[in-house]
Amino acid sequence: SYGDVFQDWGLGHIKHTKRLFLRDNVIYSPYWLYYFAIVFDVVIRFTWIFTMSPGTFGISFPVDMYLTIFTILEVTRRFVWNFIRLENEHTNNCGKYRA
Question: pLDDT tens for residues 15-33?
Fold first, then answer.
């Protein structure tokens, strides 16, 4: 989770920028999407804990149902991760002619 936000995405650093925790050069215009992605990544990253022992957490759904839900959430998390990771690579590499 730390690696996703700070290293892979280049976000989360507290510095003097226009927007708190964001880079100065972001491509996607609704900036709240980045904040949502940070929170979503951190929360969904740890949902696998619920699959280890669902009874401990009071989950009363059938096993197949919550495994399907958590799997869909994980695939969605990876989809969001890819978009922001590619955006970070694009903004960092195009100006240096490494892309």
Answer: 656 777 777 777 778 888 8
Q: What are phi and psi of 72, to 5 degrees?
A: -65, -40
- CA dist 66 and 68 (Å) reads 5
Q: Within 10 Å of residue 59's Cβ, how many Cβ atoms?
A: 14
Tell me how far CA of residue 14 lies from CA of 1, 27, 50, 54, 65, in angstroms. Answer: 17, 19, 32, 37, 40
Sequential DSSP letters for the chain:
-HIIIIIIS-----SS-SSTTS-S---SS-THHHHHHHHHHHHHHTTHHHHH-GGGGT--S-HHHHHHHHHHHHHHHHHHHHHHHHHHHHHHHGGGT--
C-alpha span between 40 and 30 (Å, rounded): 16
Does the predicted model carry a pTM greater than 0.70?
A: yes
Cβ contacts of 29 within 8 Å, gap of 6 or more: none
